[in-house]
Write a structure and sequence with these properties.
The structure is a single chain. By secondary structure, the protein is mostly helical. It has a domain of 122 residues: Butyryl-CoA Dehydrogenase, subunit A, domain 3, CATH 1.20.140. 81% of the residues lie in helices and 0% in strands. The chain contains five helices and no strands. α2 packs antiparallel against α3. The relative contact order is 0.12.
Length: 187
C-alpha cells in the first residue's frame, strides 16, 4: 500500500507537468493562428472591401430614395384620378398603416445614414494609416450600424429588391469584418 501511494505521488506531478506543457503548446498554436489570420490581408485588399461596403450603402440609399419618389408620384396620380375606388370606407386603418410604413422607412433611412457616416469615418481614418488594424474601432462602429440595419430589415417587410440589396451589403460587411478579426453578422 505504501509503495502504491509513492508511485501515485510521483505520477501525478508528471501528468500535471505534461498537461501544462500540452495546454501551453495548444494555446500558443491558437494565438499564432489567430494572429496570422488577422494580419493575412494587405491594406489594398482591405481598402477594396471598404469600397464595396461604401458602394453597397450608396446603392441601397439610392434605391430607397427612388422608391420614395415613385411612391409619392403614384399617390399623387391616384388622388388626381376621378375614378371611384372600392374599400375607401375606413380611413383610420389606412392612415395607421401609412404612419407605420413611414416610421419603418424612417427607421431604415436613419440606420442607413448612420452606417454611411461610420463607413465614411472608417475611410477617413483608414487612408492615412500604414497598419489598417489601427482602424478597428471604426470598423466596430460600422458593424454596430450594420447590425441595426439587420434588425430593421428583419422586423419590416420591404420586398425582394431591398432584401437582395441588404444581403449583398451584409456579405460585404462580413468580409470586411473578417479582415479585422471581428465576428460576422448572422442572417
Amino acid at each position: 500500500m505504501k509503495r502504491e501511494n509513492e508511485c501515485h505521488r510521483r505520477l501525478v506531478p508528471r501528468i500535471g507537468r505534461r498537461s501544462i506543457i500540452v495546454i501551453l503548446t495548444v494555446a500558443l498554436i491558437v494565438v499564432a493562428t489567430a494572429t496570422a489570420q488577422i494580419g493575412a490581408f494587405s491594406k489594398a485588399q482591405v481598402a477594396d472591401r471598404i469600397r464595396k461596403v461604401e458602394d453597397g450603402v450608396d446603392e441601397f440609399r439610392k434605391y430607397l430614395e427612388n422608391r420614395g419618389d415613385n411612391a409619392r408620384d403614384n399617390a399623387q396620380t391616384a388622388q388626381s384620378s376621378e375614378k371611384p375606388r372600392r374599400g375607401r370606407g375606413n380611413t383610420t386603418n389606412t392612415e395607421a398603416r401609412q404612419e407605420k410604413a413611414r416610421q419603418t422607412k424612417d427607421e431604415l433611412d436613419e440606420a442607413l445614414g448612420d452606417m454611411n457616416r461610420s463607413t465614411n469615418r472608417l475611410r477617413r481614418k483608414f487612408d492615412p494609416t500604414s497598419n489598417y488594424m489601427e482602424t478597428r474601432v471604426q470598423m466596430e462602429a460600422v458593424m454596430d450600424d450594420a447590425r441595426r440595419i439587420n434588425q430593421v430589415m428583419v422586423k419590416g417587410n420591404y420586398g425582394a429588391q431591398p432584401q437582395r440589396l441588404w444581403a449583398a451589403l451584409r456579405a460585404n460587411v462580413n468580409d470586411l469584418a473578417r479582415c479585422y478579426g471581428l465576428t460576422p453578422m448572422g442572417v
